[in-house]
Every structure is written in C-alpha cells, then in structure tokens.
Amino acid sequence: MWRRALQGLGVLVVLGAIGIWWLLDLYGCEFNPGGCSRILPRPTLDAMLVLSLPVALGLWLIWLGRSKH
What is the spatial distance between Cα 40 and Cα 37, in angstroms, rounded to a whole number? Predict the structure, then answer.
C-alpha cells in the first residue's frame, strides 16, 4: 500500500513541478508588452536547472515505490 502511495506522490511531484513551471512562464508572458503567442513554456537553462531537482525527487519516489527491497 505504501509503495503505491510513494509512486503516486512521485507522479504528483513531477506533474506539479511541470505545472508550476508552465504557470510561471505564462505569468511572465502576461507582463510582456508585446504579448506572447506560444502555448508551451520555454525550456531555458535556468528553468531546466530549477526543474531538475523536483523531477529528480519525483523519479526517486517512483523508483522507491517500485523497488522490492
């Protein structure tokens, strides 16, 4: 039971990190006087560095939930 909970938590962490990145990128787009025509967020180096920690944590939780120690 706790393994499924860890897997679910890992998925939520990964999806939450991507969702927050998307919302923050669109929030910055709103303050651009020229506006934005893109839907997907920009994968800049800074964004990837910040996004890598929660994604790594989420993947570790998924792996921990799937491993059979």
Answer: 10
